[in-house]
């Protein structure tokens, strides 16, 4: 092979490598910019909130000179821009401050409570996806029928009804009246001090340890709040599935498949739904992120010891370090899942790689 031929063969490869490098660089810049913006917004909102961290530490009846000394120790007497850079340095080093409520480092508290939120959101997303996708497919296939109208109304209710109102009704009906589920909380007091969790995910640990009585108790506690979150996830997933399926069923390959005599079941589930699965994965991922950051009211009503309840209790006790740390973690999780879902979408769909 001559030298010009070799150069011609390596030139397209070099261009591909350059495009890949630029794509990675753009993604990294996007991630850094997004997290920096999230950090700035969280910090300045925390400073605008009419809560004095110094008073939260020393109490309302502390002498003025004590309050002023604590403010100086916390750096609250410095300009906002200087406070922000100090906070940025602390966060990057993994220091979110100390919680006034628990006297523990905020990061340790978050590590302790966040698995409960993840467990609740995971079960809720599974419920939403398992029921939302088939309902969305049914609504698209039966477009304009009674089944389609029912699915759309169910989704509309999920978007419109306040979560706290529906949660209270669910507790009244399924717990107080029918006694089908356990009382609010994560685990019965009988097992609270005997069951040892190694990962923080109680359901997983109970299965791995073979504690089936504990598992049944955990299931009775988690099923109602997770079903409630799953219903709101179902509303979003079913609506988007219906939209994606309507678009796929109108494509020419569906007409060609019907002309070849393929069964309607095969066309719907093995062709149309498979092509709609790529954007649908992104929708489910965003729904999961939404449940992680939007379960504050659900955890509060059901006394679920997760991050949402932790933030609520911290806010009620003017624990600004815990509020900022919890809010930052929730925002970071949402942004991370959003970016990863976008990356996954571009990876699975070749049509978006050149954009």
From TrEMBL:
The chain crosses the membrane at residues 21-45, 120-141, 153-176, 218-237, 276-302, 322-345. It is found in: Cell membrane. It comes from the Bacteria. Residues 114-345 form the ABC transmembrane type-1 domain. Keywords: Cell membrane, Membrane, Transmembrane, Transmembrane helix, Transport. GO terms for molecular function: dipeptide transmembrane transporter activity. GO terms for cellular component: plasma membrane. Its main location: membrane. It is a multi-pass membrane protein. This is Peptide/nickel transport system permease protein. The keyword Transmembrane helix applies. It comes from Rhizobium rhizoryzae. The keyword NAD does not apply. Belongs to the binding-protein-dependent transport system permease family.
